[in-house]
Write a structure and sequence with these properties.
Elements lengths: L6 H14 L5 E3 L7 E5 L9 H10 L3 H5 L2 E4 L3 H13 L3 E6 L4 H9 L3 E5 L4 H15 L2 E2 L6 H18 L5 E5 L4 H13 L4 E7 L4 H8 L22 H10 L2 E5 L1 H14 L6 H13 L7 E5 L6 H7 L3
Parallel strand pairs: 2-10, 3-4, 3-6, 4-5, 7-8, 7-10, 8-9
Antiparallel strand pairs: 1-2
Length: about 325
């Protein structure tokens, strides 16, 4: 079913996020160019922006249904966010992840009190199919990481509100795209607040579901890409997020795996930030394309949950 983020979704998300999460810093990043700023969602509780959407989705549930718990599928950060949100709102959570999900994310999910279901599945889409079947069999709600107006309102919507409060004249916002919920929420905040910034989406060339969808003119609901450092952006998009991206994005680009690896190293050495591959796509894009768009520019640095061993290998240690 198509959905839209309206003012009610955004206001409900704003309230619950303000109560249970913290605003993140917006910092100037002159190493990336004049007029470039970074929204540090990597500093959010759980290490990513996904806590915001999880809180918003849980707050919107009917209390009787919520008491039975929820099920989700995740590449890691959404599950971690939902686990933490469930603990704060007293809602049981079960998270399905692939066995390839980084250990730091699996450990975070379990440590936050959720039931962790690790499955042998190839890619996010297969995990989601198993999780949806389990939710239906158990008679509980499935909370999508991206295809949900409350999730989008919490994730992109509240991030957008914070950006506009801190930098009202922002001209361009650059964000990572997996399923498309983050840019859907950012677009909603722009529309509802009457802002005018251009919105740019970025993903990995190894799994470019939204890029391909826009090129082909239809939503790639599932997408099996190549192995990628940006595993949090794997899988397909939804009909709704595709339609929003087609209508609202100024451009939708993909960056190479080499550029993502270089951006992770650059973030650590030049910016003193630990970023996962799904966040590094934005830094990679800014390093190459920041001069092509109007400033001030804000890049959403979406998460920091990379296994230390992987980061050490990338850093050459």
């Amino acid at each position: 079913m198509p959905w839209v983020v309206d003012r009610e979704h955004l206001e409900r998300a704003r309230r619950v996020v303000a109560e249970h999460a913290s605003p993140t810093r917006l910092v100037e990043a002159k190493a990336l160019g004049e007029g470039v700023w970074l929204k540090l969602e990597c500093e959010q509780d759980t290490g990513s922006f996904k806590l915001r959407g999880a809180l918003a989705a849980m707050a919107a549930l009917d209390p009787t249904r919520a008491a039975r718990g929820v099920v989700t599928a995740s590449a890691g950060n959404h599950g971690f966010g939902l686990a933490r949100a469930g603990a704060r709102l007293s809602i049981p959570v079960t998270v399905f992840v692939a066995s390839s999900t980084p250990a730091i994310k699996r450990e975070g999910i379990a440590g936050a009190g959720a039931t962790l279901e690790v499955v042998e599945a190839s890619g996010y889409d297969a995990v989601e199919a198993l999780a949806k079947a389990a939710a239906e069999a158990r008679g509980v709600a499935f909370v999508s990481p991206f295809d949900d107006p409350d999730v989008a309102a919490g994730n992109g919507g509240t991030v957008g509100l914070e950006i506009l409060a801190a930098l009202p004249d922002v001209a361009t916002v650059v964000a990572p795209v997996g399923g498309g919920g983050l840019v859907a929420g950012l677009a909603a905040a722009r529309r509802i607040e009457g802002a005018r910034f251009a919105l740019v989406g970025v993903q990995s060339e190894a799994c470019p579901a939204m890029v391909r969808s826009l090129e082909e003119g239809h939503a790639r609901l599932t997408f099996e890409g190549e192995p990628t450092l940006a595993e949090g952006l794997e899988g397909g998009v939804s009909e709704t997020t595709f339609a929003i991206a087609r209508a609202e994005l100024a451009r939708m680009d993909a960056v190479s795996e080499a550029a993502i690896a270089d951006a992770m190293r650059f973030a650590k050495r030049a910016l003193d930030l630990t970023v996962e591959g799904s966040a590094a796509v934005v830094i990679a894009w800014l390093r190459e394309h920041a001069a092509e768009v109007e400033a001030p520019i804000v890049g959403v640095v979406s998460g920091q949950n990379v296994d230390p061993e992987k980061l050490a290998r990338l850093m050459g240690r």
